[in-house]
Amino acid sequence: MRIKELDKLKEWDFHKQAVFAYLTCERLYPNYVYFSQNYDFGNPTVLREAIDYIYDNLFEQNPDKNKIQTIIQKVEENTPDTEDFSVVFVSSALDACTSILDSLDFLIHKDFSKIQSISTYGTDTIDMYIQEIENLDFNTDKDFQNKINNHPLMKREIAIQTGIISFLNSKTLDYGDIQTLLHLQENEKRGSLNL
Questions:
Q1: InterPro entries of this UniProt entry (predicted)?
Q2: Closest to 27 in 3D by CA, of 164, 143, 135, 141
Q3: How many whole angstroms separate alpha carbon 107 and alpha carbon 170?
Q4: pTM exceeds 0.90, yes or no
């Protein structure tokens, strides 16, 4: 699902875009932890270190590209292949990894298409999960998309993304503001799927 307010971010400075990416990584990370612990895959510490690196470099103009490449390689080594698992949680773990990978790439190349993708990972994770828990089938349910769009988890994700964009629009940022946004989106460390 596309967040229409995301287009506003395109006009803003790199730092605000990076904060949006970072906050999405934080929301998706607990989903990876859940998958890792329940399906014996990967190392959440590697992803945590990558997210912490993103946080530490939100206001840097020229982060260390070699360090970023090293982190990217480690995250890729801990990214699950959806072909290897038959559970929906592999998709949410993959989305957590790709949001981090795209955020790291964004720190180097500042390509706004990465921010668009990161936003989509946030909603796709919810979309796939809703389809699973509600047993929805696109081919047989004429109200398929409406049920997804109106599910409380999807409404929450859209509200969070929209709220972050609104907050970012209203001010210049510092690390205190980022902590405020983290607190507002925190879900008792249960991630966007409320696990």
A1: DUF416 (IPR007338), YP001051499.1-like_dom_sf (IPR023381)
A2: 164
A3: 23
A4: yes
